[in-house]
């Protein structure tokens, strides 16, 4: 048997098809949880209606990906994955990026959307290896200002302003 042939009871990716079915079920369950929180829970007491585009798109994407995973698992069309193990440095970078992603919404409540977005984009850029500081500044400030203008002025979506509000 060559390295490219699956072992009996495994798919071409080298793992049991049961794993793929469990993952598809998890995606479907997650979409149901999002749908419940978005559409079936009580309305806000403040009377502000929340935008439903993002949760609806996320629900649809999760369901489509779950169906595709089941279909590809049943037909045996999942490619075999042959990669090198990730080095410690890669894990540390992933942990740093995850830390920034977790700190961003927490910081947003304290210092507000514009400043926290600028800081998060700067941190992401530096963590991903960009060293042209003028470009990082231009990108972070410009993108934060554009998002602020789109959400606050055009879409009239309230954003936390922290100590600026």
Question: What do you see in this structure?
Answer:
By secondary structure, the protein is an all-alpha fold. It is 65% helix and 0% strand. Helix 1 runs antiparallel to helix 2 (53-75), helix 3 runs antiparallel to helix 4 (113-127) and helix 4 (113-127) runs antiparallel to helix 5 (133-154). The radius of gyration is 21 Å and the shape is flat. Residues 1-8 have low confidence and may be disordered.
| Count, helices | 5
Spatial shape: flat
Largest sheet: none
Return the structural class: mainly alpha
Strand content: under 5%
Helix content: 55-70%
Kindly report how far apart the N and C termini lie: 67 Å
Oligomeric state of the chains present here: single chain
Total strand segments: 0
Defining key terms:
5 helices; mainly alpha; 165 residues; flat
Describe the structure in brief.
This protein is an all-alpha fold and 165 residues long.
Task: Give me the secondary-structure topology.
Blueprint: H1 17-40, H2 53-75, H3 88-111, H4 113-127, H5 133-154
């Amino acid at each position: 048997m060559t390295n490219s042939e699956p072992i009996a009871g495994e798919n071409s990716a080298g793992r049991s098809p049961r794993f793929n079915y469990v993952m598809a079920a998890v995606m479907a369950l997650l979409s149901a949880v999002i749908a419940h929180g978005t559409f079936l829970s009580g309305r806000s007491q403040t009377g502000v209606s929340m935008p439903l585009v993002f949760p609806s798109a996320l629900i649809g994407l999760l369901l489509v990906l779950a169906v595709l995973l089941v279909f590809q698992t049943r037909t045996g069309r999942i490619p075999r994955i042959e990669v090198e193990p990730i080095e410690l440095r890669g894990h540390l970078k992933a942990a740093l990026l995850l830390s920034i992603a977790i700190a961003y919404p927490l910081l947003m409540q304290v210092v507000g959307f514009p400043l926290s977005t600028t800081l998060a984009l700067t941190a992401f850029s530096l963590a991903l290896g960009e060293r042209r500081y003028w470009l990082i500044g231009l990108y972070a400030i410009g993108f934060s200002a554009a998002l602020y203008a789109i959400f606050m002025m055009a879409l009239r979506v309230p954003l936390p302003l922290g100590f600026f509000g």
